[in-house]
Design brief:
CATH class of the largest domain in chain A: Mainly Alpha
CATH superfamily of the largest domain in chain A: MetI-like
Order of helices and strands of chain B: EEEHEEHEHHHHEHEHEEHH
Order of helices and strands of chain A: HHHHHHHHEEEEEEEEEEEEEHHHHHHHHH
Strand content of chain A: 5-15%
Helix content of chain A: 55-70%
Number of strands of chain B: 10
Low-confidence stretches of chain A: none
Radius of gyration of chain B: 18 Å
CATH architecture of the largest domain in chain A: Orthogonal Bundle
Shape of chain A: flat
Distance between the termini of chain B: 31 Å
Number of helices of chain A: 17
Strand content of chain B: 15-25%
Mean pLDDT of chain B: 87
Radius of gyration of chain A: 38 Å
Number of helices of chain B: 10
Bound molecules: adenosine-5'-triphosphate, magnesium ion
Largest sheet of chain A: 6 strands, mixed
Structural class of chain A: alpha+beta
Largest sheet of chain B: 6 strands, mixed
Helix content of chain B: 25-40%
Largest interface: A-B, 21 and 35 residues
CATH topology of the largest domain in chain A: MetI-like fold
Oligomer: heterodimer
Low-confidence stretches of chain B: 253-263
């Protein structure tokens, strides 16, 4: 019979039964979990049916939107409710019964799934779409190299629709490409009222002085300098000069792009352009920029670490309990410094970078500033722990020889501090370089700045180069810093 | 001449480690302090060179008031008092040589010690100190590479380096084996006998006390419960010994039980 009270209490309010049986901690934990489950469920359900009012309409709408979630919530919450009631009588300090908390975890998992909008189907369906940019990121090296090119251009002017207009005579220079057309005037292709094509004049283009055997592109320049490559039968026009560098072909004048109402003499131009590579492959802009930014990044990390070390040494003494335990004033300073360091450290470097960008503007200096601030806090804490763990024995022994405080620091404190100091500093350098690779995402300079620009321009190959450099640098750094730390301890 | 009057020490947490301790000590004595763990031996030794601040009472040494000394005066007094510790208290990451040289810190310029610089004479003295304790070979090793016995020799060399007028030794052999104990105490005794250096040493084992002491003080709960000469202690009965060490105490011969009194 004595079991009835906790069961009824728990059914009225889950957790109350445990409190009644003096399992205060467990009871409070259950109450907290259960109320947050209910609170979250209500908010998620009303979000699923927003703009609906009243209990049942909302539930109906939410159910039609996401039946799985609603059924899951309903079933498991009821199950939990009952389980808690049973647990409230069965639980004893001797017999641990983790079942309730497993169930609570399951419900939280379900809620979490819905809240964080996890969509496995979407991830699977859209995978092929992601593959194309991803493959460019994974193997971006085509964009890393380029070639110097040389352009050999020759062209001739034509008058449109005016056979009487006299163009200046063409003069041929030895060793320079030369192009002439026959005739030197023509009409452009147009569309008539019925959208039928009215073909333009057919002209013969002759040229000489070009590189033999090398394909040349045919370009058309109209009177307002629109440049385009005319097509014939769907193909871009191109020519290949013979062994003497000469060619001849006929083409129909392309479509008219300027309105017929245009005034004055219309002079168009046909050009033959031969582009060819000279010399071997050279690094392309993305590669050059990436390397420059990577160097900048490594130095950003280095500078931030150096500034961080210099500033955090004095701070770390103020944050070391054994040094500051002298009087209530020093103890107060100790707690103050500790608190400030903890607050600074709990704010991520990226957020500090946002603040620094407002402060000193975009660029690597903002990144260095942000990383320095965070480093001082992190190193200050690590160093102070190093100071706290030093053995007081040698300090006593050195003091006993009549040494003053500077000598005591030099002979007893510093030698003890060096190993943790070196280890923490290198560890921090490692972190700072990692951080400076992404601090550019918010404008803090370094390679992240470049990366985010490439991603925004959808230039996945260039972005891929940056990603590769980041990965390789971080991996090398990881290895080097681990190796140095291992040697030092 | 060392005069200690009504010396008391109460630690911050209220522990009364010393209560009205008074005694006089002539120069050149080998005073051994005995007493159970927690009886205040270390506190007494540390009060003498002010590693621990006495709460009340006075310590006068050759006319100088140790309790009142401040700053440079205190450092000068400390530099004349060598100290040897149970756990050696060497600076582990420094070389043996630098540990020995640190015995000179009371007399070198502060700025020179910023870059660990010592004079040529300091180096010569350091090597001769190392020679006295027989570990010249290890001079350039790091202190923590040495065995316990070797480390304590470095500790003694550091004290020798101070050219002290008095040596305080806080259970210098408690963490060493019996044979080494005699070696280490032998070095201290030699300083005492050859240079007339006053020694104040706390020891646990009665037979070591009997072997080395010229004077003995027994402490119990921070109070002096026994005073005697070396002669007295050599005739000490089990009863008196238990008086100081408590009922559960046994005689030990450098760690091993012995039958009967004396060596
Ligand atoms: N820094 C301290 N703060 C508070 N109490 C202390 C401190 N140092 C020693 N004590 C206490 O003072 C008393 C005497 O300690 P002390 O170290 O002088 O004893 P001891 O005779 O040297 O013991 P042992 O033989 O174990 O070294 C002990 O009760 C000890 O707990
Ligand atoms: Mg002690």
């Amino acid at each position: 019979m004595k079991n009835i009270a906790p069961i009824i209490l728990s059914l009225i309010f889950p957790g109350a039964g445990h409190l009644y049986r003096k399992h205060i901690q467990r009871g409070l934990l259950i109450i907290l979990s259960f109320t947050s489950i209910i609170g979250l469920s209500i908010s998620r359900i009303s979000l699923l049916a927003h703009r609906y009012e009243g209990f049942f309409p909302v539930l109906k709408k939410a159910f039609s939107n996401n039946p799985g979630f609603i059924i899951f919530l309903f079933l498991f919450t009821v199950l939990l409710w009952i389980w808690i009631a049973i647990d409230s009588v069965k639980y004893s300090t001797l017999k641990k019964r983790p079942g309730v908390f497993v169930l609570i975890l399951v419900i939280f998992f379900g809620l979490g799934w819905q809240i964080s909008e996890i969509d496995v189907v979407k991830a699977a369906v859209q995978m092929p779409d992601a593959w194309k940019p991803l493959s460019k990121v994974l193997w971006p090296w085509k964009a890393a190299i380029t070639y110097k090119t040389e352009e050999l251009t020759g062209g001739a002017d034509l008058v449109i629709d005016d056979p009487d207009y006299v163009l200046p005579a063409l003069n041929r220079t030895e060793g320079k490409p030369f192009v002439e057309t026959d005739p030197r005037w023509g009409s452009l292709s147009t569309l008539d009222k019925n959208n039928e094509i009215v073909k333009g004049t057919s002209i013969t283009v002759r040229g000489s002085g070009f590189t033999p055997g090398e394909v040349g592109e045919v370009w058309w320049l109209d009177s307002i300098s629109n440049e385009f490559r005319p097509r014939e039968g769907g193909q871009y026009l191109s020519v290949t000069p013979d062994s003497e560098g000469k060619f001849e072909f006929t083409m129909t004048l392309p479509y008219r792009l300027i309105p017929p109402s245009a005034q004055g003499v219309q002079i168009n131009r046909v050009e033959i352009r031969q582009v060819r590579r000279v010399g071997g492959p050279i690094p392309a802009d993305p590669l050059k920029l990436t390397i420059a930014r990577m160097v900048e990044t490594i130095f950003m990390g280095m500078m931030a670490t150096i500034f961080g070390i210099i500033l955090s040494i004095p701070v770390s003494f103020l944050a070391a309990r054994n040094i500051m335990s002298g009087s209530w004033i020093t103890v107060a300073v100790y707690y103050f410094v500790r608190t400030v360091l903890n607050i600074i450290r709990s704010i991520e470097p990226l957020i500090w970078a946002l603040i620094a960008v407002v402060w000193v503007g975009l660029g690597p200096f903002a990144g260095i500033l942000a990383l320095t601030i965070h480093s001082v806090a992190a190193l200050g804490k690590l160093y102070s722990e190093g100071i706290e763990s030093i053995d007081p024995g040698p300090i006593e022994a050195i003091k006993a020889t009549g040494a003053d405080s500077i000598q005591t620091i030099m002979f007893a404190i510093i030698p003890q501090m060096i190993p943790p100091f070196v280890s923490f500093s290198i560890y921090r350098w490692d972190i700072n370089v990692r951080m400076s690779t992404i601090i550019g995402l918010v404008g803090g300079g370094g390679i992240g700045f470049l990366l985010v620009q490439y991603i925004r321009l959808l230039d996945y190959q260039a972005a891929g180069i940056a990603v590769w450099f980041i990965a390789v640098t971080v991996a090398i750094l990881d290895y080097v810093s681990a190796e140095i730390r291992r040697k030092f301890i | 001449m060392l005069e200690i009057k009504n010396l008391s020490k109460t630690y911050g947490d209220g522990t009364k480690a010393l209560k009205n301790v008074s005694f006089n000590l002539e120069d050149g004595e080998f005073l051994v302090i005995i007493g159970l763990s927690g009886s205040g031996k270390s506190t007494l030794l540390r009060c003498i060179n002010r590693l621990v601040e006495p709460t009340s009472g006075s310590i006068t040494w050759n006319g100088a008031d140790i309790c009142a000394a401040k700053g440079a005066d205190l450092r000068k007094i400390r530099s004349q008092i060598g100290m040897v510790f149970q756990h050696f208290n060497l600076v582990k990451r420094l070389s043996v040589l630098n540990n020995v040289l640190s015995g000179r810190l009371g007399r070198v310029n502060t700025w020179k010690s910023l870059y660990y610089k010592f004079s040529k004479k300091d180096y010569e003295d350091a090597f001769s100190a190392l020679k006295k304790v027989g570990i010249t070979q290890q001079a350039y090793k790091r202190a923590d590479e040495l065995s316990g016995g070797q480390q304590q020799r470095v500790g003694i060399a550091r004290a020798i380096m101070q050219e002290p007028l008095m040596v305080l030794a806080d259970e210098p052999v408690a963490s060493l084996d019996p044979v080494l104990a005699h070696t280490i105490l032998g070095y201290i005794e030699r300083m005492n006998q050859e240079q007339n250096i006053t020694v104040i040493c706390s020891l646990h084992y009665l037979d070591l006390v009997q072997r080395y002491a010229t004077r003995v003080i027994g402490l119990k709960d921070g109070e002096i419960v026994y005073r005697g000469t070396g002669e007295d202690i050599r005739q000490m009965t089990d009863r008196e010994f238990k008086e100081i060490y408590g009922e559960e105490a046994e005689r030990v011969n450098a760690g091993k039980p012995v039958k009967g009194a004396g060596l």
